[in-house]
């Protein structure tokens, strides 16, 4: 007996209905949007991808061990997505162009991340609870607090998160607004994994997160297109924005105005985006967030996460043999130098993650290798 199929058909039917309805009046809506009509196209593209991904999910039989978490997830996802679709449909009736642009960007991100969540939880259309997190500490934390569950309600997640990360109480609303990539009702393994990949190590997670998303250069719900539009009005070289990439999961993108007034964009391959922003500031590339003279170079935070110039074993990079092996590829744990890490990822298509040159495991993120402090009675070599 196959169960859950009706839930999937119900929600996919709703997605298809809204998609066809908005597509049917696309041209009329784009007239009201003027130059922002491209954002409607982007939102509809993501909604179509969501519809296709839902089509690929295979219902589970009641006898299968994974049926219970499957049923629970599909139910909470269905209810959340139904509300989201109602809001999206209602938003299409608004007449204010500026508001509708931001509205469309918000839902472009919602649809994108829900599609990625479904692919994360249902690889090849089949549900599994054995996802591998980018950062080992995040995987350990989730297993300790939620076991094999695929999600937790937002309130329950925050209660458990606060126990470990007390500092989050100072930025609760900002935290929930950021980590709720796919729903405001629940936080999935996907959302927590993505959040920790983006904001880094456990010790500095909340500090880095709160500084980045409060920075004037942070483009919330930014896309490749909206980054260009945001910087178009900035005639000053050194103007920049940064955003969570929708082209490569778990990475950041930085856009800036060059000395020749070109708008350039690049994915960020580094221990953390704060190092890229700091380096760009030193080089005169990232000086004015959205054209404003108020840049944060993040030098204080970088100082807290700086790796040792040499690992404790004085190990050289196995790939180039020249530099210190100061970068740990996650989640496999093999190491290389910072330059080789960037080269491995930069040689790949944006939609394809690089692979570890040692074990061929997918690289989801990286961490600097920090030499542990020596005992007080042991002299430094």
From TrEMBL:
GO terms for biological process: protein ubiquitination; regulation of signaling; signal transduction. It is an enzyme of class 2 (transferase). The N-terminus is composed of the phosphotyrosine binding (PTB) domain, a short linker region and the RING-type zinc finger. The PTB domain, which is also called TKB (tyrosine kinase binding) domain, is composed of three different subdomains: a four-helix bundle (4H), a calcium-binding EF hand and a divergent SH2 domain. It comes from the Eukaryota. This is E3 ubiquitin-protein ligase CBL. The keyword Hydrolase does not apply. Signal peptide: none annotated. Pathway: Protein modification; protein ubiquitination. Keywords: Calcium, Metal-binding, Transferase, Ubl conjugation pathway, Zinc, Zinc-finger. It comes from Hymenolepis diminuta.
């Amino acid at each position: 007996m196959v169960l859950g199929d009706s839930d999937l058909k119900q929600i996919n039917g709703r997605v298809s209905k809204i998609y066809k309805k908005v597509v049917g009046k696309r041209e009329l809506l784009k007239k009201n949007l003027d130059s922002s009509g491209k954002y409607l196209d982007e939102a509809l593209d993501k909604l179509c991808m969501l519809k296709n991904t839902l089509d690929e999910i295979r219902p589970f039989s009641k006898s299968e061990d994974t049926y219970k978490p499957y049923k629970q997830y599909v139910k909470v996802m269905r209810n959340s997505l139904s509300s989201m679709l109602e809001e999206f449909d209602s938003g299409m009736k608004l007449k204010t162009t500026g508001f509708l642009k931001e509205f469309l960007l918000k839902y472009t991100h919602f649809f994108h991340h829900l599609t990625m969540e479904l692919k994360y939880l249902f690889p090849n259309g089949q549900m599994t609870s054995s996802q591998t997190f980018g950062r080992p500490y995040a995987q350990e934390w989730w297993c300790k607090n939620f076991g094999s569950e695929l999600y937790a309600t937002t309130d329950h997640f925050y209660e458990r998160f606060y126990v470990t990360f007390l500092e989050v109480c100072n930025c609760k609303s900002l935290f929930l607004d950021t980590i709720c990539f796919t729903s405001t009702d629940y936080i999935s393994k996907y959302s927590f994994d993505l959040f920790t990949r983006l904001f880094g190590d456990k010790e500095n997670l909340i500090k880095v997160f709160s500084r980045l998303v409060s920075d004037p250069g942070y483009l919330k719900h930014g896309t490749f297109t909206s980054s260009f539009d945001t910087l178009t009005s900035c005639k000053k070289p050194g103007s920049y924005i940064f955003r969570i990439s929708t082209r490569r999961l778990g990475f950041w993108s930085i856009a800036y105005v060059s000395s020749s007034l070109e708008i350039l964009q690049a994915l960020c391959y580094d221990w953390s985006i704060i190092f890229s922003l700091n380096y760009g500031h030193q080089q005169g590339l990232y000086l004015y967030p959205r054209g404003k003279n108020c840049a944060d170079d993040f030098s204080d935070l970088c100082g807290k996460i700086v790796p040792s110039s040499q690992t404790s074993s004085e190990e050289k990079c196995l790939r180039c043999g020249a530099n210190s092996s100061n970068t740990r590829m996650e989640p496999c744990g093999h190491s290389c130098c910072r330059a080789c890490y960037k080269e491995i990822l930069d040689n790949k298509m944006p939609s394809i993650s690089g692979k570890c040159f040692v074990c061929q495991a997918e690289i989801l993120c990286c961490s600097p290798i920090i030499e542990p402090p020596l005992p007080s009675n042991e002299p430094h070599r």
